[in-house]
Every structure is written in C-alpha cells, then in structure tokens.
Amino acid sequence: MGHRRTFLAASALALLMILAGCATDRRDRSLQTTLTAYAATVRWGTFAQAVSFLDPAYRNAHPLSDLDMARYRQVRVSEYDAGNGPVPVGKYKVKQVVRIGLINVHTQTERTIIDRQTWRYDPDTRHWWLTSGLPDITPSQ
C-alpha cells in the first residue's frame, strides 16, 4: 500500500507542476499578445484607443481630461521601441521601458520620450492591464 500512496502523491505533484507550467505559458502568451496589441495601437492607432489597455482602477482614479486627449491628438507616433522587452518584477507584474518617437502634427518637429510601463496580470480575468498610465507626452522644459 505504501508504494501506491507514494505513486499517487508523485503523480498528483507532477500533474500540479504541469498545470502550473500551462498557466505560466498561458500568462506569458497573453502578455506577449497584449504588449504587441498595445504597441500597434500606440504606433498606428490613437491614444484614445490605447485607453482600453489601462487598468480599470487606474482609469477611474486618473480619468483623462479633454485637454489630455487634445494633447494626444497633437502628436503622431513615429517610433515605438520596446528594447529588450518586459522584465518580470513579481509573479503577476512586469516592467518595460519603451522609447517613443513623437511628431507634432502642427510644427512637424520630432522628439523622443521614454515611457516606463508597469503591467499587472489579473489571474481572475486572465488579462494584463497597464497600471502606469499612458505615456507622458508633455514636453519637458
């Protein structure tokens, strides 16, 4: 009987490890899909569309004003470079540094900003959310 219990315990442990690995793979694939979609939205879409990637709690705490949205409409993205990609900082959190090229639609001047992103995974909804907000495009003085 002892061998059978040991076998069952080992089998259960192996199954748990496989399931955990599958969950991690699914979470990693979801992250890559989300980051790719966000990059495409920022690069080719609009910042108004990018709002849908914001964590709902962040969005409620930091609503974008009409003035904020007007500022985003004044630029076009010419470059979106995620460098080495995301770096895990916990089981459900990654950080990423992105270089974004912006062109002012009125003056046609170009400048570059650095966007330090933080993404959080919600295991209940199996969704990655941007918790650091949209890029700060305000020109530095």
Tell me what the structure shows.
There is one protein chain. The relative contact order is 0.15. By secondary structure, the chain is α+β, with helices and mostly antiparallel strands. Strand 3 and strand 4 form a beta hairpin. It has four helices and five strands. It has helices at 2-44, 47-50, 56-61, 66-73; strands at 75-81, 87-90, 93-104, 110-122, 127-130. Strands 1, 2, 3, 4 and 5 form a five-stranded antiparallel sheet that branches. Helices cover 43% and strands 28% of the residues. The model is unreliable at 10-21 (pLDDT under 50). It starts with a helix and ends in an 11-residue tail after the last strand. The protein has a single domain (2-130), classed as Roll (Nuclear Transport Factor 2, Chain: A), CATH 3.10.450.100.
Describe the structure concisely for a colleague.
43% of the residues lie in helices and 28% in strands.
Any chance you could write out the topology, listing elements then pairs?
Blueprint: H1 2-44, H2 47-50, H3 56-61, H4 66-73, E1 75-81, E2 87-90, E3 93-104, E4 110-122, E5 127-130
Antiparallel strand pairs: 1-3, 2-3, 3-4, 4-5
CATH topology: Nuclear Transport Factor 2, Chain: A
Given the structure, what is the number of helices? 4
Percent of residues in helical segments? 40-55%
Query: What is the CATH level 1 assignment?
Result: Alpha Beta
Q: What's the rounded overall pLDDT mean?
A: 87
Cα gyration radius (Å): 20 Å
Overall shape: it is: elongated
Low-confidence stretches: 10-21
Distance N terminus to C terminus? 76 Å
What is the domain tally?
A: 1
The secondary structure category is alpha+beta
Order of helices and strands, N to C?
A: HHHHEEEEE
Identify the CATH homologous superfamily.
Answer: NTF2-like, domain 1
